[in-house]
């Protein structure tokens, strides 16, 4: 494998539960993924990242792992995984696993042991504290509503869970826990996986005193994040993991890092520090929320988004490496979020893809993004399956919120927007299953589906194919520096990339208005890709129509 192969790769994320069901039980599975490998090869991606496929009671759809080395019954068997790895390899596709080691399921045998008694051998695999009188040890709230602490009767103390109470946090201070994690990682590398996406990895080092956090306006619990995000030993752990596991090959590693700054990202991804290949930032995903919670809806102010990308593109250039994403299984659909999912769905989906894929970093495509899948509106809260959504709804309603307001924030930000089944065709249940899907399909599958996309040369799918191809062909995409143009413009996202004598200019219209842009260097014949069939070009003026994207490439010395 070429070294740093992941710099020129495009990753496709599969949420297995919602991708393709091969046996009619309403739940996507591994044979279902294998059936669709030709489709993924056609798209042109290099890497498949699978959200967790391990044995789990599914409190959080697999992000609560009961056994790291066995496969969830609904998904299939270890033989299916082995077949998937080898079939993917035949098509030039590497497999990346989700490594969830900030916490396990409370049904993992480590926790089943640990909770029995204070002198159990697994006790120090988790984080235990005495209460403060009749209260929990500190005021931290969990990400899924309620306190971050749960009482354990047999030991008469509390355990920490930053997520649900069925997801107890692991104690990375424990040498034996860390060793067990590294052994498990070797187990998967020995099976032939090419890397790991690491779930909330920058939360694994907690400040040992676990102090109370500030209680922000409108919040019921304290914010412990200053004491568990990017904690004191995080980089020691990453370097140890590198030395013990990752140094064995050129492995793709991407750390999910909420709250990480560009300085943190450089520490994680500087190749000389031997930690990770790259991290996922959340900064660009938080610009349409209030300061304290994602449910607090705000309109996006485009200059903020552009300046945020400028910061990441310039501050990691030559120092570390970016990941580039708009979507994943936790985020609403980008075409509904920053695009226009009614009149300009196709145009805006292509424009958003253009804007992202011409930056420096490794692009990630989330299932369905390549056909422009949209957010969903279910009238009843009962139709939502995500525990984050359900707990938030219950908590807010119990505290006097208005049903319609809470539903509105779910329509805009709920995680089930990303998790409705993949839309393969216009037959019943979008061709995802012959049974009843675990989460309802988006009713728009009759018009938005893979079959329709594959039939049209102008589809969003075809456009993604071209973007992926261009990443292979143009070194400037991987190597070039980034210069933001028109930083304060509220509608146009424009930037340049520079490398040797080459230059790219990228013009993306994030609005439904028509705008004239004066182009000094560009020529009509320099267009690399565009999302309208024709170009509106007169006397060095480019007229950008609603959600139009145009890219020019030229030689600076010519
Ligand atoms: C981040 C994952 O992406 C999300 O889906 C999950 O709920 C939490 N981590 C907890 O594992």
UniProtKB/TrEMBL annotation:
<keyword id="KW-0326">Glycosidase</keyword>
<dbReference type="InterPro" id="IPR006047">
    <property type="entry name" value="GH13_cat_dom"/>
</dbReference>
<comment type="similarity">
    <text>Belongs to the glycosyl hydrolase 13 family.</text>
</comment>
<dbReference type="Pfam" id="PF00128">
    <property type="entry name" value="Alpha-amylase"/>
</dbReference>
<dbReference type="GO" id="GO:0005737">
    <property type="term" value="C:cytoplasm"/>
</dbReference>
<dbReference type="InterPro" id="IPR017853">
    <property type="entry name" value="GH"/>
</dbReference>
<dbReference type="GO" id="GO:0004556">
    <property type="term" value="F:alpha-amylase activity"/>
</dbReference>
<dbReference type="InterPro" id="IPR045857">
    <property type="entry name" value="O16G_dom_2"/>
</dbReference>
<keyword id="KW-0378">Hydrolase</keyword>
<protein>
    <recommendedName>
        <fullName>oligo-1,6-glucosidase</fullName>
        <ecNumber>3.2.1.10</ecNumber>
    </recommendedName>
</protein>
<keyword id="KW-0963">Cytoplasm</keyword>
<dbReference type="GO" id="GO:0004574">
    <property type="term" value="F:oligo-1,6-glucosidase activity"/>
</dbReference>
<dbReference type="GO" id="GO:0009313">
    <property type="term" value="P:oligosaccharide catabolic process"/>
</dbReference>
<feature type="domain" description="Glycosyl hydrolase family 13 catalytic">
    <location>
        <begin position="13"/>
        <end position="419"/>
    </location>
</feature>
<dbReference type="InterPro" id="IPR013780">
    <property type="entry name" value="Glyco_hydro_b"/>
</dbReference>
């Amino acid at each position: 494998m070429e070294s740093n192969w992941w710099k020129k790769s495009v990753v496709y994320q599969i949420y297995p539960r919602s991708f393709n069901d091969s046996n009619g039980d309403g739940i996507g599975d591994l044979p279902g993924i294998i059936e669709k490998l030709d489709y993924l090869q056609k798209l042109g991606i290099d890497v498949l990242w699978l959200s967790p496929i391990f044995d789990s009671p599914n409190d959080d759809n697999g992000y609560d792992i009961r056994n790291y080395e066995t496969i969830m019954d609904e998904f299939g068997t270890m033989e299916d995984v082995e077949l998937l790895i080898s079939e993917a390899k035949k098509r030039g596709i590497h497999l990346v696993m989700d490594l969830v080691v900030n916490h396990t399921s409370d049904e993992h045998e480590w926790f089943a042991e640990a909770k029995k008694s204070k002198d159990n051998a697994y006790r120090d695999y988790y984080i235990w504290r005495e209460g403060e009188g009749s209260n929990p040890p500190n005021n931290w709230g969990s990400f899924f509503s309620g306190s971050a602490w749960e009482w354990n009767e047999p030991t008469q103390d509390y355990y920490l869970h930053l997520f649900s109470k069925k997801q107890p946090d692991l104690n990375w201070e424990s040498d034996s826990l860390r060793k067990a994690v590294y052994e498990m990682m070797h187990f998967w590398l020995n099976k032939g996986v090419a890397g790991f996406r690491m779930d909330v990895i920058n939360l694994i080092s907690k400040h040992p005193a676990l102090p109370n956090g500030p209680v922000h306006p409108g919040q019921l619990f304290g914010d412990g994040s200053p004491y568990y995000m990017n904690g004191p030993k995080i980089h020691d752990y990453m370097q140890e993991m590198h030395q013990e596991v990752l140094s064995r090959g050129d492995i793709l590693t991407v750390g999910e890092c909420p709250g990480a700054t560009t300085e943190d990202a450089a520490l994680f991804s500087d190749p000389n520090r031997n930690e990770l290949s790259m991290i996922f930032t959340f900064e660009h995903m938080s610009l349409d929320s209030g300061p304290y919670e994602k449910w607090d809806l705000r309109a996006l102010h485009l200059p903020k988004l552009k300046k945020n990308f400028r910061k990441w593109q310039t501050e990691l250039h030559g120092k570390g490496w970016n990941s580039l994403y708009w979507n994943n299984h936790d985020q609403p659909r980008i075409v509904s979020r920053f695009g226009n999912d009614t009149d300009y769905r196709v145009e805006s989906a292509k424009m958003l893809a253009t804007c992202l894929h011409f930056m420096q970093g490794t692009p990630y495509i989330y299932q369905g993004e390549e056909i422009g899948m949209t957010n969903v509106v279910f009238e009843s809260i009962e139709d939502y399956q995500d525990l984050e959504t359900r707990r938030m709804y219950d908590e807010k309603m119990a505290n006097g919120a208005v049903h319609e307001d809470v539903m509105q924030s779910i329509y805009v930000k709920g995680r089930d927007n990303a998790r409705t089944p993949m839309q393969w065709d216009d037959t019943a249940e979008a061709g995802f299953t012959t049974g009843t899907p675990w989460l309802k399909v988006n009713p728009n599958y009759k018009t938005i589906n893979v079959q329709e996309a594959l039939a049209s040369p102008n589809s969003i799918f075809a456009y993604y194919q071209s973007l992926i191809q261009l990443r292979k062909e143009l070194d400037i995409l991987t190597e070039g520096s980034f210069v933001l143009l028109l930083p304060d413009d509220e509608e146009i996202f424009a930037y340049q990339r520079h490398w040797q004598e080459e230059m790219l200019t990228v013009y993306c219209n994030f609005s439904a208005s028509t705008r004239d842009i004066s182009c000094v260097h560009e020529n009509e014949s320099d267009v690399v890709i565009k999302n309208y069939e024709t170009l509106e070009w007169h006397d060095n003026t480019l007229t950008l129509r609603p959600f139009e994207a145009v890219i020019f490439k030229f030689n600076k010395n010519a």
